[in-house]
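Example 3.2
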Amino acid sequence: MEEGIRQKHDPFESIKIPEYRSLLAGRFLFVTALRMITTVCGWWIYNLTNDPLAIGVLGLSEVIPAISFALYAGHVIDKSEKRKMLLRGVSFYLVCAALLLLLATSLTSNYLSNHWIAICIYVIIFTTGLIRAFIGPIFGVVLASIVPRNLLQNATTWNQGTWLSASVTGHAMGGLMIATLGNAGSFAVVSALIATAFFMILKLKPKPAHAGIKEKATWESVKEGLRYVFKTKEILGALSLDMFAVLFGGAVAMIPVYARDILKVGPVGFGWLNGAGDIGDIIMVMILTLYPLRRKQGLRLLYAVFGFGISIIVFALSENYLLSFTALLIGGMLDGISVVVRGTIMQLKTPDNMRGRVLSVNGMFVNSSNELGQFESGLAARLMGVVPSVVFGGCMTMAIVVITWIKAPSLRKMEY
């Protein structure tokens, strides 16, 4: 009996599948590159403009196309061969990275003013947002086509851990690359990582569309995905809580300002601050991989998001680098609970023939919370000042949890 239990809860079972390992390797390299782009562009745009709002506009320029095309992208994903779409999206990202590399060279700066360089950055990031609308959900769709259903919870936890590991690596490498190689050298590394990810994804087998999807009209297909999300209360509740919490608690957007002007730590310290939350996420995902949540997942989700709000307030008020790093680290650990619970619900509650559309709706929530949160943080910093705006965001996050506790008892009682 004890041996059977150990086999059932083997934390490494899903990654024993070779094709799944290739997917994780490709995703790790790709997300590392994307996080480096975010880190370098955030530092770059702030130094070009000296305006916190410019960081917010950078996030807005990516989220507008990502959200606008998300529903259509879900329909296209469900009716298309996934591996081909994934390879095509990675290729387009490589082109954008190459353009950023060109823009960062001294040759370009000799001909363009800081104002026009900033505009070009916005245009390129807008393009990556459009690509992301299509490529973002595909990794989750491909995961479910590779891993048996009984291993989805374990595979989802590993998938989130890979994403978070890549995120912290990309943030830290971004700061290190800025300090050692400059912007142009950083984008050269980014391009190499994306190219390597392309060859890892080439190892995957084709993932054809499910029967019957192609015959449906686009709008009817899109509505079907929306209806499913809104009628599945577990999915809707988890997504809504995460969206509003991150929307108001997006302290990460102001880290370039804290690093340069408040903590005065430079690009390397900036990179580690940027990655602190992801390090905390990784720690929590590792814990949950070995000791998965078995009961009261919804209640623990609410507690975690409330604690996340407290950590944001501590970060906002801190003028000590170690305390700031620790606050972001703890916030990341609490966010890791939300990431795992939400990701597991999405995989377990979504039918195979609707994964593209449902995960695209998930992408809308995630994109709106992260990038719109970045814009909200920049705008609030302009209106209220940097420190008060981050304190306000932490307080609003806690208020959202209280409202959710009262208005959504089904989420509080949710278990899977």
